[in-house]
Amino acid sequence: MARNAEQRWFLTTVIWLAAIGGGWARVADDPPCEIYCFELSPTAMAPGASGEGRLRLAWSPFGIAVSESGFLVYELELTIGNLPPPGRLGSYTTYVAWIASPELDRVERLGAVAPSGALRARIQSWNKFLVLVTPERHTEPERRAGPVVLQGRSPSGLMASFQSHELFNNMPH
Q1: Is 111 left (phi over 0), alpha (psi -120 to 50) or beta?
Q2: pTM for the whole structure
Q3: N or C: which end of the chain has fewer CB within 10 A?
């Protein structure tokens, strides 16, 4: 009898896991690029440079990964091309990608980037953010010091209300 109870428990557990999506056994489809991709635009410092960012929701056995602060956790893939050698822009030796809050009051290093290459990083600081690429003197600087050569805005950053902006204040209805 005990063996039948164990078998029923096991089968119930397997069916329950299958019903909620299988968690760890399922591989998520790539999200649509229209929603989870964004362009990295060049600045005057590197007019021929280009780049793209692609966000994927980080894996979680619960469906959506959330940081301790309550932000969605993303896996970011940057694809970068046509950056000039960093030495052409000054006494720089490498390029570094950064994530910044929309107000630019907080900035975190993502990692070093090759002039034509890719970078994978985990984003768990903000739901709306900017991605900046700068030339730097070291591969792991404490703070951003070089000029911005590529910049992009997370897709969620496009969803902003400008109702409180001074341009729209005191407008006739």
Answers
A1: left
A2: 0.74
A3: C
